């Protein structure tokens, strides 16, 4: 399954990158990500973290490994465990701030026939999830701090 979404956030790339470089922040913005715990930092600067993703009443557990860590332009994670795949974040400067692109490719391990039958539903669901995640990121980064 693949999905890609973009948003422009009125913050500089460095600020957006630094926020997304903290794995626990992913749980703050992703609707179905219920837990994230940083396990360490890899030699390339990428993070290693444990996660739990909840879907249809089921928990999917695994780890992410930061395979690309290129501040302030790009972060890529490989997923292992119940969900296999890749997450890619890119941050491009714009006149108004940062264009953030969030791309995912993953496999839930479903049989080919079931994956094919569910493809139209999962494609729409995944797109809504990515779009909601980016809106949440924008809200978290642009809300005024409490006084």
Q: Can you tell me about this structure?
A:
This protein has 147 residues and is α+β, with helices and mostly antiparallel strands. The protein has one domain (2-142): Alpha-D-Glucose-1,6-Bisphosphate, Chain A, domain 4 (2-Layer Sandwich), CATH 3.30.530.20. The chain has three helices and seven strands, in the order E-H-H-E-E-E-E-E-E-H. It has helices spanning 13-20, 23-29, 112-142; strands at 2-9, 33-41, 47-55, 58-70, 74-81, 84-94, 97-107. The protein has a seven-stranded antiparallel β-sheet, with helices on one face. The N and C termini lie far apart (43 Å). The model has no long low-confidence stretch (mean pLDDT 89).
Please give a handful of descriptors for the protein shown:
single chain, 147 residues, alpha+beta, Alpha-D-Glucose-1,6-Bisphosphate, Chain A, domain 4, 3 helices
Topology order in helix (H) and strand (E) letters? EHHEEEEEEH
Total domain count: 1
User: Structural class, from helix and strand content?
Assistant: alpha+beta
Number of strands: 7
What's the mean pLDDT score? 89
Distance between the termini: 43 Å
CATH topology: Alpha-D-Glucose-1,6-Bisphosphate, Chain A, domain 4
Kindly provide the radius of gyration, computed on alpha-carbon positions and rounded to a whole number of angstroms.
Answer: 15 Å
Main beta sheet: 7 strands, antiparallel
CATH class annotation? Alpha Beta
Order of strands across the widest beta sheet?
1-7-6-5-4-3-2
User: How many helices?
Assistant: 3
